[in-house]
Design a protein that fits this description.
Helix content is 18%, strand content 25%. The chain is an alpha+beta fold. Strands 2-1-4-3 form a four-stranded mixed sheet, with helices on one face. It has a two-stranded antiparallel sheet with strand order 5-6. The chain is elongated, with a radius of gyration of 23 Å.
């Protein structure tokens, strides 16, 4: 097997056809070989073993259901900016030049949580300084919440194979 072929991406579906992950051809062939998955879509070519030729999988489905808990998104600058649509929550200006602001300042006991961290442009962050928005005469548009959990975030900004579209039709190929 050529390393380029065995490391190619394969869409892994749960028993109920829900996309779970993207694995490699090597992992997919192992799952198929031990009977834990079935082949739904073939890729191009074959993988040759000493005793047989196996079609290269593009989409496989597990034979049993995996219950996967939805994981909360990690609190990071990038995630906060995405949640806030790259907009300063104090003045409403869209910009890529953003900073993180703690609504209740950290030095006053404000936690580093989704509910206390917002995107702020540099001028609004300086204007607010170490005060609360009320003390600085500034207002947030509403209650700040954690972003919704997205079980399909695995597929955002990643190339999607043509054979995968019928299993993940909401994702466009970029």
């Amino acid at each position: 097997m050529k390393s380029q072929v065995i490391s190619a991406p394969v869409l892994l579906l749960n028993q109920n056809y829900q996309p779970l992950n993207v694995c490699t051809v090597r992992r997919a062939v192992v799952l198929l070989g031990i009977g834990k998955a079935e082949l739904l879509e073939k890729g191009q070519g074959e993988v040759h073993t000493p005793s047989q030729a196996i079609p290269i999988p593009s989409v496989i489905r597990l034979m049993y259901l995996i219950k996967r808990p939805l994981l909360q998104r990690r609190l990071s600058r990038k995630e906060v900016f995405q949640r806030d649509n790259y907009t300063c929550l104090y003045c409403g200006r869209e910009t890529k030049q953003l900073t993180l602001d703690h609504v209740m300042p950290r030095y006053r006991g404000g936690p580093h949580t989704w509910e206390n961290v917002v995107s702020a442009c540099i001028s609004c962050n300086h204007r607010k300084a170490g005060r609360t928005p009320q003390e600085a005469g500034m207002h947030l548009p509403g209650e700040v919440r954690p972003p919704r959990v997205n079980p399909y975030s695995l597929f955002t900004n990643k190339p999607i194979q043509d054979e995968w579209h019928k299993f993940i039709p909401w994702v466009s190929n970029k």
